[in-house]
What does this fold into?
Amino acid sequence: MREKTKYEIEMDYLRAMDQAKELDRLADDLSRIANNGIESAFLILKNHWRGDSNESIELAGRNTTAEIYRTAEDLANTARSIRSTANIVYRAEKSALNMIF
It folds into this structure.
């Protein structure tokens, strides 16, 4: 197995950081959707629903919103893990590269 170059180490690190940034962006988008879009949609549906299921619709809305928030948090946690791992790997690879030269 050949050694990575300094450039390859840097590029791998930057790719990992870009992936973490994208996951953070997706997490923010999901949180915004849960905060504004989903609750509004279920409120409109509840207010215009004719029937006995009004409470079921409200419960479904709360459950859906909670699941979206959980998914957003999972994405944010994954982004943090990627950044942490990328930093550890980056430092280890840079250290190994310095030992070679």
